[in-house]
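Q: Structure for this?
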Amino acid sequence: MKYAFYPGCVAKGGCPELYTAAVKVAEKLDIELEEMADVACTGAGCMPTQLSDPINARTFAKAEQMGLPIMTICSTCQGVFSQANHRLQDTDYREEINREYLAEEGLSYQGTTEVKHMLWVLFEDLGVEKLKSLIQRPLDGLKVSPFYGCFLRRPGPIMVPTKEVGGRRGYLEDLTRLLGAENVDISGKTKCCGFPVLTANEESSLGMVAKHAGESKQNGADCMVTPCPLCHLNLDGNQPRAESLKGEKINLPIVHLPQLLGLALGFDADEMQLGKHIVSTKAVNDKVDMLT
Amino acid sequence: MPEYDVLVIGGGAAGLRASIAAKRAGASVALLSKVHPLRTNSALSPGGVNAPLGSDDSAQKFADDIMNAGDGLCNPEAVNALAAEAAGEVVWLERVGVPFNRDGDGRIDRRALGSGSVERAAYADDRTGHMVLHVLHEQFQRYDIPCFKEWFVTSLIQDAGACTGAVALDHRSGRIETFSAGAVILATGGFIQAYRPCTAAVGTTGDGLALGYDLGVGLADMEMVQFHPTVYSAGRTALISEAALSAGARLVNAAGDTVVDAAGLSRAQLAAAVDKAGRNGGGPVSLDLRPVENVASRFPGAAEVVRLMAGLDITQVPVPVRPVAHRAMGGLDTNASGETSVAGLFAVGECAHSGVHGAGRMPGNTLTEAVVFGKRVGEAAAAHAQSAGTRSTSTDQAARDGERLAAITSGGSSGDTLGTIHRELGDVMHANLGVTRTDAGLAEAQETIRGLRDRHGKLRVGNKSRIFNYALTSHLELGNMLKLAEAVALAARGRNESRGAHQRSDSPERDDTSWKAHTVVHQQDGAPKLDRKAVSA
Amino acid sequence: MEVTYKVHREDSQNGGESSFSTYQVDLPEDATVLDGLQKIRDEQDDTLAFRASCCQGTCGECAVRINYKAQFTCTTRIADVTKKGPEILCAPVRNIPVIKDLVFDMDRFTWDKMAAMKPWMEPDDEFAPTENLVPESEMAEVRKTMTCYQCGLCDEGCAVLPVDFDFLGPGAMVKGYRFVMDPRETGPRQEERLAVVEQPKGLWDCVHCYEANGKCARGLEPSSKIMEMRDVSFKHGIKNEKVARHHNSFINSVKQTGWLDERKLVMETEGLTNIGGLMKLLPTAVRAMTRGKMPGRHEKRPGADQIKRIIEKAEESK
């Protein structure tokens, strides 16, 4: 099983622990990764589609050349890619982009590249049985709130396109249970984390952090797990600011999807770089340490 | 007390247009509506808005067609005004935003409504009423006109013979307030909810007609009730625009054979033909829209409403239809400027009878009437208010209304319910005052309605609150409908001939000697009294 | 069939305590949820308040949360909402103050926000003798958008409104879109329209979570329309200064190096001369540094020159 690996900017920037964890976990799972080094940022929904569609078409064309599907570890990258790829299925539009932007570099996108988030890869390519067989340390007693955020779920017709993959709606909960942890639901698990509006309306953004993290804490979770580093930046990185805004302590560790997976695969907290988080993950580390 | 030059009652297309016109004419204006303007019955008008915009058309041709459809009961002054001013109004609607369908040259496209008619209806898919209503509401907001929405008018105020204001109940605060006005425009819509089934929104209960009637204004041609020929109705109702017929849809029986050829038929004739075909034993009549090219995109409104209400797909199966009460042509007797017999009181739209429809309204003229007469009446009311002297608006009426409402919410249950009385009224209206009528049936209807009025008079509402007390306002609405139903039955019984929408199987011929005249019902000592009024030349 | 209605009760003028009332109702198989509510008010409890008007899914008046999903009572069949049991739970739509029972404050929820869009045309040639000439393909798009009922279902699903009730919301944005995209509102008119949708609490306050796309009864995809308007706004020059700085910094970063320089982005968004804004960022930066989380030196990627070429060409075509 081999993928063109697209880590995204944040895993190479503000959340280096995500990159480290993902690479280690993939190796343990026999997922071979060939990192795409010479491709652009997706645009993250911040670039207008008129700029981002051409550069994403370039990325897809590169993967096509490699003959590999793309694996992402960021919901935002995945969402922007999926939407762009959806538009690029229109032959006229794709040909126009090939002609206008890619031809000069000798590239042409044929529309065949598949883009999958690591969460989807686990269930749809690797398979539950294989994953189960590799678990070395079931996370018994760890209470985890899955937090999808937006981009892995919506727009529904693009992100959860068919009945066959209808299970995508429950992957995060399924994984949490599969790893032996306890699933702690929160009402906003498929809602926005607030990150996209940090610029335009900080208070609203931090309000969302407080709402989700606060509810998870209240429901008794030890931590929250997210497949998106931008959710992580806001939920973890801005949790102290959300706490000051609301005048209450929350102190809920937020872990990246590969980190949680890694802990169950037998990696320790240091290997998963849990120490790099803003909100201390001590409560998680302690619980996991007890398991070994 | 809030004071305005012009007080408009009713937030549908006619009321909004009148408000805008009065405001542009320099008057201070306020609108009172028992529902938000976007929730009014105007939103349900699908087919189009008539205007002689084609190079092959003219105001004269339009007027001739209206006179013809009106079967001898049109007021030529009103008809000529409508025909002359329709194009200007429709072009204005386009200029301020209505997204009319376009022809190949980018001009407003036109289509025929009903088979055989001239291509004269400008349309926005089959959601013309929705689009016109929304754009009129936009313009209404542009002029920053105060909107008292979800206020229910309980009575009009009369001083020295003139109408000087209204009393209304605010659903939200429960407060009863007196509004003082130099002129009052009633634009409250028709009373088709008196029928069951019917195509109208629940609020189409004839409140404005009853308000004017109580003040002494006559109700003209109340027997003229138009049935829509292509309505799905089985518990729930879904209206399909007649434009589908001219676009190629067919009326078929269970075997798929065409049972009604719609070509050249007026709406009343078509309704009668569909009604008859449905009784002929060939099974229910259905509208087969499958022959219409691109039916789902050309009739998205029909596709949606039939899917939602009937659970059927118009691209796959014929839709069972029958004639259903749709549009009242009778109403408060007015001239072509909307003036009633009471100084300062105007009426426009479906609640008014300006004689523009006669005995048979052309499909597509409801919206045209709303905008053309909305403008005319708004301007006339503004002029009246500006020229009227000082007025006195007493708050005594508000106190009396308060007592009246308190009386309705006093006392216990009589075992009867508003819903039961409403259903029984609707059933007798449909059966005995429907597409075809007989003297015996009408006499029976009068009897039944009298009985229902007695029961309604005894019925009390248990909910004593005034805040969003819909049971209380339903009680008032039902009272209005019963009062009007009595007038409809009386007028229908009086007119012992067949003309336009009024078809009597016991008097099947048109009788111009006796009945080239309007019926007018006045209220005398609480009882309806029928008069006859000559048709203007 | 016999069903159980469990209906939210609340009277904001009298204390505002909320509760549920339960009613047993016998209805025909094909009855709608509205039929049942009407029957309850008529026969069992005339204090029950709910709104309804057209009763055929055309006006948008009767949105209620039925079994946790906001929908119209007049188009929802009881048979469809009782498959898992005979109980029908009716509650007011979310994100909105209740006045009484199922009647909520549409002024604050929708009407005032719609009005903030200055939702009307004021053409110079309003009384011209003939209509605007517009191709049908363009008019059809506007018409589709204008099927919006202004019912509030999209706002009901909004992720921002629960934390910021003053956000204008997807419904108002659809109203704005109708004008921004109208071929009759071009040139300076369109600029004015963009300025209106880009007002504070408007276009840029949306988190593009795409919740609203799945909520519209007429399939108008409000979230996608918001993103489309952002693309248009970008072409015309983003009018919200801070958002514009953020976008420019973002694009420049990708243009220069192929990927995002987060450190620079944060500072340039705040504005390099905005000392107060930058100071506010300091605690977060310090926290990140102590955790070894601060992004390292931002290196140019291989392929960056091609990426730059593509972006510059795409910018030219705007």
